[in-house]
Write a structure and sequence with these properties.
The protein is mainly α. 73% of the residues lie in helices and 0% in strands. The two termini are 28 Å apart.
């Protein structure tokens, strides 16, 4: 593709990252200055950033830029993510209209003591995300339950939703069927079972601490059953189908579409809404009419995902991603430095792309070169790529997981971030693992 030698990395351009900087200034800066994070809707900030991306790189004709973004939007990961958003919106609309959310929450509150409700949400989300292989699907399936638990227990909405997002990120980098796991294993050339064992040992302490933190945050919950928590078991079935389907590893699309159909059948059969309103229920979930200020509905999130893909495509074409990769590679010194470099690489690229699968695919080849050069075990480099891309994805306010949770809960993404303790603890656990753990026997120290 080019005449560059193996010793010469392709040139990157720092200025190519300007569109991402513009977005961060507009979206986060305005919120900090005004104290109102609804002030600048995310979609407007992203559109302005896209305009900046189009203005850059004048050597590339406008028509060629359109081809670049079309290719980026057409990426399998982007299309899959958008379809999951729409399916999740349809499911949430159908299950809400049928009364499934109320019945599911009431059933849970009938048997689950208040101090364990939020911790239970986190643990359930962990199991679902490992089985389902998608953090977005997990967030979509459980956020409505988190909202109702918040409404009925008095716990802060952000705490309940944060528990779901934390649990979703647990499985995002562990699941055998997760895109991120597959991408990490393929780019680093290791066995999936070996990567799972390595990864699990790193994140388990963080998961246990997170469960304890959520218990401590909500241990003083003292709501009383002043009312009888009535529920209809038939209305709970769609949620049970989604949860059980996820646990046994059914494809996320089949789970969400099947759950939607079940919710519609139950809604009509129980007389909750007439047959003529089934499409209204689905459409309401996708469009999500209960929007507050800049908070997104599922339709808005889908559009934002497409715009982000356009921005990233142009940033990459102009050398922004390559600049980040080259910078981290120059800073690597020694085996442990190589591991920190791989971790930083995954974290920074994810912050730039807002998609951890895309981040791993982009950073994977460079991480492989670093691990080969400094004798890092492939299963360890794969684990670090997956973990730190999930750390980034679980903390950025413009990531799919937080945007989905915020959209379904009708709160600002920034409100959730203070309660996302799991990604932070996961990063700390991984860094301790890098600094203190003995290196794998038989792996060369350096060349």
């Amino acid at each position: 593709m080019s005449n560059e030698t193996n010793h010469e990395a392709p040139k990157g351009r720092a200025i190519a990252l300007l569109p991402i900087g513009v977005f961060l200034v507009l979206f986060l800066g305005m919120g900090i200055i005004t104290g109102d994070f609804y002030k600048t809707p995310a979609i407007v900030a992203f559109l302005i950033a896209l305009c900046v991306a189009f203005i850059q790189n004048r050597k590339l004709p406008f028509n060629e830029k359109l081809k670049v973004i079309a290719k980026g939007v057409g990426d399998e990961n982007i299309i899959t993510m958008c379809l999951i958003f729409l399916c999740a919106g349809a499911f949430s609309g159908a299950v809400t209209a049928s009364g499934g959310v109320d019945s599911t929450v009431n059933l849970g509150l009938s048997v689950l003591p208040a101090p364990f409700a939020v911790m239970g949400l986190f643990i359930i989300a962990c199991f679902i995300s490992v089985s389902m292989g998608t953090s977005v699907g997990t967030v979509s399936a459980l956020t409505l339950i988190a909202v109702e638990i918040s409404n009925k227990t008095g716990f802060a909405m952000a705490v309940c939703v944060g528990a779901v997002v934390c649990g979703a990120m647990f499985g995002d980098n562990l699941s055998m069927i997760s895109d991120t796991t597959i991408a990490a294993v393929k780019t680093q050339g290791c066995e999936m079972k070996d990567k799972f064992k390595e990864n699990f040992l790193i994140v388990l302490p963080a998961a246990i601490l997170t469960a304890v933190i959520f218990f401590l945050l909500t241990r003083n919950g003292n709501f009383e059953q002043a009312e009888s928590y009535a529920y209809n078991i038939w209305k709970v079935i769609p949620y049970l189908f989604v949860l059980v389907g996820a646990l046994i590893g059914i494809n996320v699309f089949i789970v969400l579409i099947g759950g939607t159909i079940m919710a519609l059948v139950v809604g009509v059969a129980t007389g909750t809404f007439p047959l003529s309103d089934v499409f209204v229920a689905i459409g309401g979930g996708i469009i999500n009419g209960e929007k507050i200020g800049g908070v997104m509905g599922m339709y808005d999130i889908t559009v934002i995902s497409i715009i982000v893909a356009c921005i990233v495509s142009l940033v990459k074409e102009f050398g922004g991603i390559q600049f980040v990769l080259n910078l981290i590679r120059r800073l690597v010194k020694g085996p442990r430095g190589a591991e920190v470099g791989i971790a930083s690489l995954a974290l920074v690229v994810d912050a730039c792309t807002a998609n951890n699968t895309v981040a791993i695919v982009m950073a994977g080849p460079i991480a492989k070169e670093i691990s080969d050069e400094y004798g890092v075990d492939p299963k360890r480099s794969a684990s670090l790529l997956d973990i730190f891309s999930s750390v980034g994805q679980g903390l950025i306010p413009y990531g799919a997981q937080i945007l989905t949770a915020a959209g379904l809960a009708a709160i600002s993404p920034v409100e959730i971030i203070p309660y996302l303790c799991y990604p932070i603890l996961m990063a700390i656990s991984a860094l301790i693992f890098i600094l203190l753990r003995k290196r794998t026997k038989g792996v060369e120290q350096t060349k």
